[in-house]
Every structure is written in C-alpha cells, then in structure tokens.
Design brief:
The chain is mainly alpha-helical and 173 residues long. The chain has 6 helices and no strands.
C-alpha cells in the first residue's frame, strides 16, 4: 500500500522564504515609518545631518539604496515561496509563517540596530529626541527586535511540533 503521507521534502514549509519576507518587512517598516513618515532619522543622518539640502539629498539617496536592498529580500522570499508552493503537498501553517516572519524581522532589527546604530553610528532610531536619550531609543529598538526574534522562534517551534502530530484520522494510522 502506498504511503499516503507526503515525503518531508514535498511538504516542507518554506522557512527561508518567511525569514526573507520578515527581513524585507522589517526594512520597509524602518524605512517607511521611521525614515519617511516620522522622519526620525535617515540612512546616514548621524554622519550627514539633514540640515542642508545637499545632506538631505545624500540621505534620501541612501534611503533609496536601503529600500532597494529590502525589496530584494522580499523578491527573493517571494521566489522561494512561489517555488515551494508549486509542490503538491505543501504543508501550510500560520504559526510557521508568522514565526518565520518574526524571526526575519527580529533579525533585521538586531543586526541593523547593532551595526548601524551602535557599531557604525550612521544613524540612531530617534534623532529628533534629545541626544542624551538616543541610546534609550536604540536599546528599545534592539529589545523590540529581540522580542520578535524570541516570539518568532517560539511560534515556529510550536508550528513544528504541531506538524509532528497527526492532523487527520488517516495520518494517525
């Protein structure tokens, strides 16, 4: 009798796709909300303050480069998702999707917050706040990233555990 369960290769959830989507969404949130809507900082605003038209133009250019990179994350994530979704027995899981998105977004915040805010100092989360308070905004950004990473990891684990249990009577036999 033929095994009715799909092989693990055929039913694998596209985790890399979810992580890349999360990286892209984290970058888009940062760029759209913090750079454009709130205008708290721009890509190089600590190195080139936006107090001149030339510096604002330079920052806007690098904001665009940043957005282009986040766009590439989303496009590659979409490609991986599309490629996997064509499989006959794809395992669909909201927990795995949400968990992998949070893993990617949290990783984005932690890497971007550590490298750009702390190590390179090219900008800080809220440069409109008094300078002495910048570190608190930066630490909050890192804490938010860590919370998303931990929450994503827990959700992802929960989704993986559910996958190991039979979901129908037929699979339970």
């Amino acid at each position: 009798m033929k095994n009715l369960q799909a092989s693990s290769n055929d039913s694998a959830f596209p985790t890399a796709s979810g992580i890349l989507f999360g990286l892209g969404l984290g970058g888009f949130f940062d760029g759209i909300v913090l750079h454009q809507v709130l205008q708290w900082h721009h890509m190089l605003s600590n190195w080139y303050p936006t107090n001149t038209v030339a510096n604002l133009r330079l920052n806007t250019l690098w904001d665009g480069v940043f957005h282009s990179a986040t766009y590439v994350f989303v496009v590659v994530g979409l490609y991986l998702f599309w490629r996997t979704a064509h499989r006959t027995h794809l395992y669909w899981s909201g927990k795995l999707l949400s968990g992998s998105l949070l893993l990617g977004w949290g990783a984005f915040n932690l890497v971007e917050g550590t490298v750009d805010h702390q190590l390179l100092g090219i900008h800080h989360v809220n440069e409109k706040a008094p300078r002495v308070d910048w570190i608190y905004w930066d630490l909050g950004f890192l804490a938010w990233g860590a919370a998303m990473l931990i929450g994503g990891w827990l959700l992802y684990r929960w989704g993986r555990r559910e996958r190991s249990y039979p979901t129908t009577m037929l699979e339970g036999r």
